[in-house]
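User: Teach me something about this protein's shape.
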Amino acid sequence: MAISLRKNQDRSYIRVLKIRRRQLILLGQGPVADACARALARGPERLIRVRATEVAAPELSKADVLVLAGLNDPLAQLNALATQLEQRRRRRPLPVLVVDDGLASTTSTSAASSARWLDRLQLEQLSVPVAAARRLLARWPLHWGADPRFGQPIHLVICGRSRFAEALLLHGLRISGYGGSRTRFTLLSEDPATWAQTFSQAYPQVHEIADVLFGSEDVMDWSDVPLVTMVVVCQPPDALSDALSQARVLAKHLLDRQQCSPPILVEIGDAEPSGELSDWDGQLIPISYRRLALDRAVLLEGRGDELARVIHEHYRDTTEAQGRDPSLEPAGRPWSTLAASYRDANRHQADHLWAKLAMTDCQAVPESQVESFAFAPIEVERLAVIEHGRWAADRWLDGWSYAPTRDNARKHHPQLIPYQQLSGPMKDLDRFAVRLVPTLLARSGLGVLRLLLVGLAPIKTALGATDEDSEPCRAAVRRRQGTRLALLMRRALTRLVARYPDRALIIAAALDDPAARAFVRIATDEWGAGFFLLLPQPLPRVLGGLDAAAGLQVLSLVARAERRILLPDPGDLERWLEQRAEILVEIGDEALAAEDKAARPKRLRIRLTTGLEWSFEY
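Assistant: First, the predicted structure itself:
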């Protein structure tokens, strides 16, 4: 943007505002560079893609951002551009983003620090597999297919060895702490022994964090392992048909052996998903790890790092409040010049925050919807145990181990012990980190709401029963009952929302009954409620018992589900509703035994004959 003054015809001066489009230079060839080009071309900036030998000084002087994508040696490329970089006349350093398909940094900080162009650049690096793993587990968190608060262990299966698969495993390990049962990771590949050996050599402390099993799908006995709660098929992009085939075979094995249908995310590379909702099985979900990572907002705006930046800025503010200059400390430098290791530490803390909210039945919402929030003391203690486990997992994966005396050179730390064995002051550090969560979210423009879990009891008698003989008469009765039932559902939801204005309404239900589907649809469409899908039977069997229209209704609601909770064992659904739902909604006119009004959960009965019956004050 530029402002200049020009003389008008009457010799007076007018101000002319010229707006210049931001200019991006993309340097690189290959799949990663191609993916970057597709993402950046969608924005308003002017994108110039050039080869390494084609970068001219005038172009570089006008560049607002330089992207180096898929280069074997980006540091050598920057050294080759040193002359052009020195000719830049702009005062601000040129932002340079190095994008690579590997797991580790391709540009050595120590090597770059000696380069003569360093003060002219703002260097940042992005590993595509690592960024994709973070975004995937933010969109589909580890607890998406399970309920750790119900005592269910998380079991993630990763099929196919690739850099994305390894990044997903590492990030999953870092944020796998939910307290209680240990998280399970199963890695399937053609050569599991080699993968197991290389991984255990690189991360010898992994057994302290979670259970990790390497195996082959051909010989895997799914009847002898914990319930699988999510699957990610990470076959290379050129093996799409193999990936889909593997996903379908695995889905059948899990259906036969575990009586479950966990969500299965399938890597499809550069292919574009197509088809109608009716073509979907509700279980397979196409993903592209490059598209996850190489989003324009990720590349240019740091999307996904907002909370990590807030955590870092809070640390800087705290350091300054203690009378120290944060910029003089390696961990306190501004984000733009912060070392990658410290950035990653902030990211890991930020990415685990959502697990903490899940373990307290809380949800982040726009701050305007919340007046104030604080965790209860019992929640603080429970989350402090989890936070200590997260911190320890980060250290173990970085090669640290326990020793009674700290030694940074040998990576020895005396606090790598169970939370219960920590001293009081050390426990207070974890408690402080937990109590800080609402403050950090507030600085991000978010507040915390507690969930109001409303469970829908299994419907024992199908609605629409009538003595009429003809189908037209029966259909008319069903329509009248449906209209009456929808009216009662809306009345019930209106009263619930009015009774609990400071709670986030969540409906938890199975979808095998039309009345249940109607209740979920009305709550989500008209009241903005969230939806937890309860699966006492596998999804293929639910869909198999429905006609085409009802199947589409189910699939549309499955697509909205924030959680898919597998409850395959007899009595699991009833136990979950009794233990986890705060309010239990029962639909139907059958006689029910009286219950203690103080019992949990509270009950709301919706009856066509008598209307709404509440076991609590609403």
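Now, about its shape. The chain has four domains: 2-126, 140-267, 305-444, 448-614. The domain at 2-126 is CATH 3.40.50.720 (Rossmann fold). If you'd like, I can walk through any region in more detail.
User: That's plenty for now, thanks!
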